[in-house]
Design goal:
Four Helix Bundle (Hemerythrin (Met), subunit A), 9 helices, globular
């Protein structure tokens, strides 16, 4: 049984299956309208944690080739990325609430970290994946972190369609002020 959880393809499969389910739900809104309201909150929390957080956290601990970088580089860069992930996640959650997929605020949030990047929680998840991969020198995890981070762009696409419907011109103005989805606007 221990070999089962140390298999990198288990965690990649968990993510891919969960991601496909999320995209199907986002693509077929008529069938799944209000699905987050119909499901028990505990089930939705377990889904989010098991699909979007567990794979990048577990994958670096699996068997596979290691990244050939000095320990001080992996340690310092990995910790820096994980601290950035934590800070960004805390700032975003302070603005929008602890679980934005479950708790919906009626007002469009455009201040704080959301005034710098439109999707800071997704950006922080990418930093988490890259940070864990570098910290533990896992080649599979580092390779996985690239499509993992970029896959959020598809989720963002569907979310932005809904935000355009909900907020209209207000969201268009926000998009002009904060042009990047997961890359911070520094100036």
């Amino acid at each position: 049984m221990p070999n089962f959880f140390t298999n990198p393809f288990l965690w990649i499969s968990v993510y891919l299956i969960g991601f496909i389910i999320a995209i199907i739900i986002l693509c077929l809104p008529r069938l799944f309208t209000g699905v987050e309201k119909k499901l028990p909150k505990v089930l939705l929390k377990v889904y989010i944690l098991s699909v979007f957080i567990a794979p990048p956290m577990a994958l670096p601990f699996t068997k596979g080739p290691k990244i050939a970088i000095p320990a001080y580089v992996s340690l310092s860069l990995g910790i820096f990325l994980l601290v950035m992930n934590f800070v960004i996640k805390m700032l975003a959650q302070k603005e929008i609430g602890a679980l934005p997929g479950i708790k919906r605020k009626a007002k469009l949030i455009t201040t704080g970290i959301y005034g710098i990047v439109r999707n800071p929680l997704y950006m922080s998840n990418g930093l988490l994946a890259i940070g864990m991969a570098v910290l533990l020198k896992s080649m599979y995890a580092l390779i996985f972190s690239v499509p993992y981070s970029l896959s959020y762009l598809l989720i963002i696409y569907f979310e932005e369609k809904d935000l355009m419907k909900k907020y209209g011109n207000e969201y268009q103005e926000y998009m002009k002020k904060v042009p990047y989805r997961i890359i911070p606007r520094l100036f």
